[in-house]
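help with this:

***
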Amino acid sequence: MTAILEQIRNILSSLYIPKIQVNDVIEIAIIAFLLYMFMAWIQKTRAYTLLKGILIVGLFIIIAWVMQLSAILWIFQNLASIALIALVIIFQPELRRALESLGGRSFLRSILPFETSHDVKERFSDAVINEIIRAVNEMSEVRTGALIVIEQNIFLTEFVETGIALDSKISSQLLINIFEHNTPLHDGAVIVRDERILAATCYLPLSENDSINKKYGTRHRAGLGISEVSDAFTIIVSEETGRVSYSFMGKLVTGVTPSELREQLHYVQKRTLKDRTGSKFRIWKGREKE
């Protein structure tokens, strides 16, 4: 511990603090703004989890440097040459989507995302919960298979693009009609954002969890798979048995009652409101839907 403290003192004593000028303040402000925009964008994607993992690895590197762990430092030095290429490969879908989004909007709107017209609705209402539960109950009684994904903080744009765009108000009649047998939209998942049905027939990633009971088919594996790569809440209605299940945060809960499902939807409703509006600083509010 004494050696570590001495090392820290040597580092601090060798630091050079230059004089701060106006240009330096402007440069720092621009860099801080760009970092803020980057973090605000990446927090709504699946890459946010990967970024946190990279930051943890960076913390280990700092600890190894302070404690002079030569073997670990040698490994990181030899891997540094391919680190940038690996990052580009890992974040390729998110980088491509960000560039496409930037190219589809004006430059000023992309760097100055002020709120201009109205405040974004942050959560779905109790009426939406009633419509979803009514649809799920009716489909369960007649054993109509269904897969309803409720988006939360991580946007599911890449999965929305695999389906057919609807952008419709949520109603039990519409949900039942979508999943009705032998209709063009019944196959795949419905993705919900706030109080709108964004798309139907969406393809979801299948879970590779070997602990799932073999009696559960593709629909349950897809519901669990989307919960493993995002924070979405997914409702599954079995076509074989009519049982209702839900998946959330990588866990699958089967055979839930309407009251249990309602309780979980209220939890998701409050959680979404807290996470999206809990920020203390609301100067740069932006249009979250973009």
About this structure: Residues 2-111 form one domain. The two ends are 50 Å apart (CA to CA). The chain has two domains: 2-111, 126-276.
